């Protein structure tokens, strides 16, 4: 059992300004800095979770491990807030039977963010404790040991990091800018907001896979180091590969399609996608996580569109059901309307979208791609008209899609391709792919692509290929837009962009 | 509805050697090459799965889409084997009311691996049909249309590709060598063995995550492009990153540990891991899939070891329960003993392993690492003594582990580190990590590591870090060893090694 002030590993490991406990300190065994946990022993002490400290535990003696979120000395008392992930509780160290004045001073001087083991009695609070998640109880501390000591100066304050920007602007209170956050990500990720964002993101991945496995999909693993840049070589990172060189995959598409040609029928994969684009926007990363789907269909690519849309709907519903606490936590700092969607998902044709935009005063051609502002505007128009934050735009002009996109059978200027949008921003791009090597060759030629470079791709379809379609979803964008956040760096733990490679 | 010989897209799309149907062909609407499926229509035709064609469906008329696995003409009849993933059925086209002699000839001439839509009556077979999974029924074909035509010469024959090596050796029958397989992976992945291997691999990932999420872990996404090679720079791939350069992550370890320091407590990730090692062995890849775990513990790293071992046990059990068909399919080509494991998992200390090896005649020092042959031998000794194919080796000598490994608190020559083995091969390496920046600095100096290069790593622990441990599992190795296969390239869909970057 870690114990006794005397067991610390020397003065340099003690909190600042602490005096040696006086010889007459009757509590001297009850606090101190524990020696580093090196798996010396296996005590049978139970550590209770802070979120489980409720009125039902009143008057029980419990051990808790938490971080010192704040501490405030007040005469013969010290109030600590102990934090564990998104939960926190008030702890009181007061001079009395268990605590000496030296112990109160020790507690008051523990650096914020240090990890402590505390033994205390759970007491009902006389009135609701405002700043804590555990509002009905507090902990009356009987022993306190520092398990891991934080350095005294934090690069950012957690309370500043969760403050809504509007409060910062109106009241002049401190908030934390994005680069400071990202430079000190280990601290920034400790905030209730960050904890909630990334727990919810974990949930998105889980719901994505759960749904697809239920639908009979198989998870595949596709290589990230590839020998040829499949879409012509733009925006691709080069890797030195022994005495030669290679590329980082811009998408798993070729490999997903090979799996379809290899009879896996319905596949998905979750993995990093690399884009060497020098785009410094709120929604571009050079490395992001792709949630990718590819599926053989019987007669019509809408069979696939329906499966993808339903998968997203299952994700939205699952988040509502399982992550309500996290959504509310994020909303406190970043207020936003709840995410709305329809069942079945609204599907508009591109020409309808163009008509809606024109009616709103936008001038654009039939075969022109959507600009980012027009995407956003369209999102607002769709929301007004259909009351949904999620919809599918189908039948894009062939001219704005990649060479492997299947042309529309009726109108050769259109294609069997689609994007999906959340709150007016694209989160998925997909299409029926050409599965016929002859047509694929023609289309590649039309696009001026060097056939030699895509020979392996075209050859994949020479030994019988089922009609198929698919798409790729950007995980960070889905997280951002579901939660109504404004920058994809908020939903990437360690974002990569042209200017950031660390931490 | 695709129909009629006349709807083919011209002669070049027809199977070889086919004559134009005679004008007097009474079945001419009942066969042919369909036009490419371009999502022209949404027919309400139901395609039945081959695996669902059983005696219960006898005398029903069904539509099936499958590949022509084999075809054999015999007088006025043609026997086809139609395949769908791991399942296949015999189909008979016979001159009669529905089929003309031209139609039988057409069917007989369809290139193997072409995809066809077939309408037929399910008939009980007079005797078990040996070569097919559906042994009790056959399909009497009434219509047959080619959906996607394969080229006539296949680079490898599927029957050769599933032949057990011993048959090839004994009877001189053809088998397919590994490079031919990998060069033509789209075909090789269609075999029943490959289908089973990769469905089971998908199951491993699913069971890994299912188990950890049940245990309260959070899934994280870690960057693969990193600014500094964390373990000193050996065996790392370099990436050109805009005007600068970067590296591919050799493991997600630093990021997993940062998440622990950021209070996520229990995290896992599944993703590619890159090793620029010029090792051409049966078990090394330059890119593989890591199943990674990191977890804060209370007092002893065995809390983590137990969780990891239990996770693997849950995977083994889940595979037994859910993937029995796949295991049996693989066993047909690669016979092997069922995988054995104990509950709880056997945990031996390194010194015990050294003693067992010495008793078996091996000469080795106390602080010497295990060679590959000794690992294998130890696996056999452990199997003999304890009857398990899975065990943990604990307390490795400190000298053979990385600088961030926590030393043993009692014997400073040992460490709080462990490997896990399946059938005598390492599948996981892990340890308690040093969470104290001061000790970490000392150990890095001892290893002669440039402190400047690992500053960010050490700084992660300066603001309070809980004791933690973790490990990384190689997905391809787990798949290989569970199934008793002999080369990790059999369990990587698109393997990467120093000599292979394609497909």
Automatic annotation (TrEMBL), chains A, B:
Localization per Swiss-Prot or TrEMBL: Cytoplasm
Keyword check for Phosphoprotein: yes
GO MF annotations, alphabetized: aspartate-tRNA ligase activity; ATP binding; RNA binding
Short name of one Pfam family: tRNA-synt_2
Stretches assigned to the Aminoacyl-transfer RNA synthetases class-II family profile domain: 200-503
Residues in the signal sequence: none
Substrates-to-products reaction catalysed: tRNA(Asp) + L-aspartate + ATP = L-aspartyl-tRNA(Asp) + AMP + diphosphate
CDD domains the UniProt entry points to: AspRS_cyto_N, AsxRS_core
GO cellular component: aminoacyl-tRNA synthetase multienzyme complex; cytosol
Sequence similarity: Belongs to the class-II aminoacyl-tRNA synthetase family. Type 2 subfamily.
NCBIfam families: aspS_nondisc (TIGR00458), PRK05159.1 (NF003483)
Function per UniProt: Catalyzes the specific attachment of an amino acid to its cognate tRNA in a 2 step reaction: the amino acid (AA) is first activated by ATP to form AA-AMP and then transferred to the acceptor end of the tRNA.
Protein name: Aspartate--tRNA ligase, cytoplasmic
Lineage: Eukaryota, Metazoa, Chordata, Craniata, Vertebrata
UniProt gene name: DARS1
